[in-house]
Design brief:
Length: 453
C-alpha cells in the first residue's frame, strides 16, 4: 500500500490528535469523544452537518462534504498542514472514502480507497466477492427510474423468487424488502424508489441512490461479526448470534448475543471466509463489521457441517448505533476493561492490540423495534425492566414528540437494552423479559393539511 506523507515528522512530545469523521446523526460520536478524552487525545470533528457556515457549532469542526471525498480529503490535508493529525476514525459508512483518501496522503494507517468504496456499494461488494470465488447470492441492479413491471417482462429469468430488493448504500435494514412473487416485486420496487427519492436521501448526493439491487434470497442462520484488520491481518473480536429469524418481508434486527452458540468448526469456517473477503476487498487497517448467513444441512448449533457461508455485508467501520456498549475488552494480563471505541482508536494510532480480548461473560443487546408509526410520547415499565436479572442498562433514544417510522423506511430504534450473564441463553432471556416490561405510548401522527390558496 503506497502512502504519501504530507505531514512533518510526528513529535512524540506533542499530545496526539484524533480526527473523527462523523455525520449529523451518528449515535457513536459521543462515545468516541469520551474515549479520546480518556486517552488524553486532542480531538477535532470533521462533519457534513453544515456546508454554509465555516464553524456552525463553534466547536472547531471541519465542514466537509462526504459526497465529495476528493475535496474533503484536500480540506483535511490542508488542516493537517497546520495541525498534526495522528489518526483518523469514521463513524458510519459515508465518511470512509474521505478517510481513505486523506490517510493515504497523510501517511496514516487506514483502509485504502478502493476497499472503502467497495464496502459502501452493495453492487461493487458483490462483484468483488464473486470474483474472489466466495459464496454470494445471484444479483442484479436496476436504475431506480425503471418500471418494475418492465424489468419482469424484459427477461422472465432475470428475477428469481423469492428475492430481496435493497438500496445500494443504506444501512441497518433500511429499504430491504423480500418479494415472493411478481406482485410483491413491483410493490417493493416502488416502495424503495419512493424512499430513495426522499429529500433526506437525495440531499446526500450519492450515486448509489440511483439504483435498486435485486438479489436471490438465501436461507440460513444470520450472524454478525465484529473485527479489526491490523495491517492486512483479520482479528475477530466477537461473533454475534441473531436469535430472531430474519425471513422478511422486512429485516429488522433486534437481538445480538455473544459468544456465538455456533459449533467451533462453524465459527472457524466463518472466520476463514471473512479472511478471504478481507483479501478480496483489499482491506488493510481499521475496523470491520460483517453480516453473514450460515446455511447447513443440519442445525449448526449441533452440527459442524456447512453448505454455504453467505456474506451479506462487509463494512469498513465498527458496529452502528449504541450496540458497541454490548462489548467490553480486557488486556492480557487482565486489567481494567475498556470499550470497542478504545480498541478502534488505539488501532488507528498504530498501537499493538494483539493482547486485547473480549471479556469472558456473555453479553447482548436488543435494538428496541418501533411497533408502528406515530409520535413518541413516553415509555412505561422502565423500573420493572431495569430490575430484570441480567439487565445491565436500558437507554431510550427516542425523544418526546419525535416522529417514529418503522422499517423499511425508518432509520432508527426506540432505544437499546443491554444484558450480561454466565451464558448466551440467559442473556437472551433477560433481554426478552425486560422488553416485555416496557410499554411505549405512541400517538397517531396528525396528517399535514396544505392550504389551497
Amino acid at each position: 500500500m503506497r502512502e504519501e506523507r504530507t505531514q512533518g515528522l510526528i513529535d512524540a512530545s506533542q499530545p496526539k490528535r484524533l480526527l473523527l469523521l462523523t455525520t449529523t446523526t451518528g449515535y457513536q460520536t459521543r462515545a468516541f469523544i469520551e474515549t479520546a478524552n480518556k486517552l488524553d487525545l486532542g480531538i477535532v470533528l470533521g462533519t457534513d452537518r453544515c456546508h454554509v457556515l465555516e464553524d456552525p457549532w463553534q466547536d472547531g469542526a471541519l465542514p466537509l462534504r462526504f459526497e465529495d471525498p476528493e475535496g474533503s480529503a484536500r480540506h483535511i490535508v490542508e488542516y493537517a498542514g497546520r495541525n498534526l493529525v495522528h489518526a483518523v476514525v469514521c463513524v458510519g459508512d459515508r465518511p470512509t472514502p474521505t478517510a481513505a483518501l486523506a490517510c493515504a496522503r497523510l501517511g496514516l494507517l487506514h483502509h485504502p480507497l478502493r476497499a472503502a468504496e467497495s464496502c459502501r456499494d452493495k453492487y461493487l461488494s458483490r462483484e468483488r466477492l464473486r470474483a474472489a470465488g466466495l459464496d454470494v447470492p445471484s444479483f442484479n441492479r436496476f436504475p431506480v427510474a425503471m418500471d418494475p413491471g418492465t424489468i419482469l417482462r424484459l427477461d422472465p429469468t432475470i428475477v428469481h423468487f423469492p428475492c430481496v430488493l435493497k438500496p445500494l448504500a443504506l444501512a441497518a435494514g433500511r429499504g430491504v424488502i423480500r418479494a415472493d412473487n411478481p406482485r410483491e416485486f413491483v410493490t417493493a420496487f416502488e416502495r424503495i424508489k419512493a424512499l430513495l427519492l426522499r429529500p433526506e436521501v437525495r440531499v446526500m448526493r450519492e450515486e448509489t441512490s440511483n439504483f435498486i439491487q435485486v438479489e436471490e434470497y438465501v436461507e440460513g442462520e444470520e450472524i454478525a461479526v465484529e473485527a479489526v484488520v491490523d495491517r492486512g491481518r483479520l482479528r475477530v473480536l466477537a461473533i454475534f448470534d441473531k436469535p430472531d429469524p430474519l425471513v422478511g418481508p422486512f429485516f429488522e434486527e433486534t437481538i445480538y448475543v455473544t459468544p456465538s452458540r455456533l459449533k467451533p468448526e462453524v465459527q472457524g469456517a466463518v472466520i476463514k471466509t471473512l479472511e478471504q473477503a478481507v483479501k478480496a476487498f483489499g482491506l488493510y487497517h481499521g475496523p470491520l463489521h460483517a453480516e453473514l448467513r450460515v446455511e447447513s444441512g443440519e442445525v449448526t448449533h449441533t452440527s459442524g457441517r456447512v453448505k454455504h457461508i453467505w456474506i451479506l455485508e462487509v463494512a469498513a467501520r465498527s458496529i452502528g448505533g449504541l450496540c458497541s456498549r454490548a462489548l467490553r475488552f480486557c488486556p492480557r494480563p487482565p486489567g481494567e476493561s475498556f470499550s470497542l471505541e478504545e480498541v478502534v482508536i488505539r488501532l488507528a494510532l498504530g498501537e499493538d492490540i494483539s493482547a486485547v480480548e473480549r471479556e469472558s461473560v456473555a453479553s447482548g443487546v436488543m435494538m428496541i423495534p418501533i411497533p408502528g408509526a406515530g409520535l413518541y410520547q413516553e415509555v412505561k415499565g422502565m423500573e420493572e425492566a431495569r430490575q430484570t436479572p441480567g439487565i445491565k442498562e436500558i437507554i431510550i433514544a427516542a425523544k418526546p414528540a419525535q416522529q417514529l417510522e418503522p422499517l423499511p423506511e425508518g432509520s432508527s430504534y426506540l432505544g437499546f437494552i443491554f444484558a450480561c450473564g454466565p451464558s448466551p441463553e440467559l442473556v437472551e432471556k433477560a433481554l426478552r423479559r425486560a422488553h416485555q416490561q416496557l410499554h411505549f405510548v405512541i400517538a397517531p401522527a396528525l396528517p399535514v393539511i396544505q392550504s389551497a390558496s
